[in-house]
Specification:
Length: about 70
Amino acid sequence: MSVTFDGCSANFAMARELGASIDLNDMKPTFVHPVDPSKQVCLILDACHMLKLMRNTLAEKWVLIDCDQQEIK
């Protein structure tokens, strides 16, 4: 069983509420199934959708700035 989602911050917050995490420093990509505690549910990031979101953002903004103040074009 799995839950598949894109990189929206609300999805990461939902994952934390369910007891999972995809943070690099605290990786726990599963949570206990709320109806059947004997099963685990795995989180899967939808990479194709995330790439489309990035493409659309770059098309709209043209230039983004990363955490080191470098331009992303």
